[in-house]
Design a protein that fits this description.
Number of domains: 1
Number of strands: 7
Structural class: alpha/beta
Helix content: 25-40%
Strand order of the largest sheet: 3-2-1-4-5-7-6
Radius of gyration: 18 Å
CATH superfamily: Vaccinia Virus protein VP39
CATH class: Alpha Beta
CATH architecture: 3-Layer(aba) Sandwich
Distance between the termini: 43 Å
């Protein structure tokens, strides 16, 4: 029987893996938070190279979407990036927010923070800062952000309801988020999902799309919409190991599988309270 890890163990596993990525500074050379021995999962994400503000040294190919492209960031906005890594989305958000804006990167891995801060010094940016903290317990004030972004990180947080409650708390009334994440649809055979996690660890912790959207709704958000959805292809040799030819047809026709989604939602303008912990 597969060992069930506690929330603390899961967090430590993610932290350790991201620390090794930062130290090795090898783009695409790790598995997004698992201890699996895969080599390259950059196929999961989208290319940032055409985005204004893109900094190659800050892009470790750890994402699954382009949240900043869809985030509707305006000049002067305060933007918070959850799980900011080496600073990739932070630096792009800074370009959108302009000199009068402010961008905060939040990460719980010290080695990633060190790398991001080094990149910031090299670039000479003054309206960017990186803060250490957990997404489900952010060391940030209420109503601080106009926009929140995140790229392939929330699925790795064990308590997603708490993470989204915290996101709600730090957003200003009327503020919004654009978050890229990994979800599943349909009943994926357990063995196939486990092997997919070994190939691309970003799958780890992913939940069904309808459940994911319900967590967001239950957190108090409105105007929830999927800005982009793309299926993540599991390598054929893995599918062949666990599904017969007939089962593969059913699997594809039913559109079962693992998806990258970018979700947008707003905090109501009249939100007077963000929950029982912050009133």
């Amino acid at each position: 029987m597969k060992e069930v890890k506690t929330d603390t163990q899961l967090k430590e596993m993610v932290r350790d893996k991201y620390a090794s990525i930062a130290v090795e500074n090898t783009p695409g050379g790790a598995c997004c938070g698992t201890d699996a021995g895969c080599t390259d999962y950059s196929f999961i994400g989208d290319s940032y190279e055409t985005q204004e503000g893109y900094v190659k040294d800050a892009d470790l190919n750890l994402g699954c979407g382009l949240p900043t492209k869809f985030a509707k960031i305006e000049v002067g906005d305060t933007v918070v990036d959850l799980g900011s890594g080496a600073g990739n989305d932070v630096f792009i958000a800074r370009k959108e927010a302009g000199a009068s804006g402010r961008v905060i990167g939040l990460d719980f891995t010290q080695e990633m923070l060190d790398l991001a801060r080094k990149n910031t010094v090299t670039l000479g940016f003054e309206n960017v800062e990186f803060i250490k903290g957990d997404i489900d317990d952010m060391p940030l004030k209420n109503d601080i952000a106009d926009v929140v972004v995140s790229n392939c990180v929330l699925n790795l947080v064990p308590d997603k309801a708490k993470a989204y409650a915290e996101t709600f708390r730090i957003l200003k009334p009327g503020g919004h988020f654009s978050i890229s994440d990994v979800v599943v649809e349909g009943s994926i055979p357990t063995e196939l999902k486990e092997q997919a996690e070994m190939y691309a660890g970003c799958v780890s912790g992913s939940i069904p799309l309808d459940e994911y959207l319900q967590v967001i709704k239950d957190s108090g958000f409105e105007q929830i919409e999927i800005q982009k959805k793309r299926q993540i292809e599991i390598p054929q040799d893995i599918i062949d190991q666990f599904l017969s030819a007939e089962e593969q047809v059913i699997y594809r026709d039913a559109k079962l599988g693992i998806f990258s989604v970018t979700v947008f939602a707003k905090k109501p303008k009249d939100a007077a309270c963000c929950g029982p912990t912050c009133c």
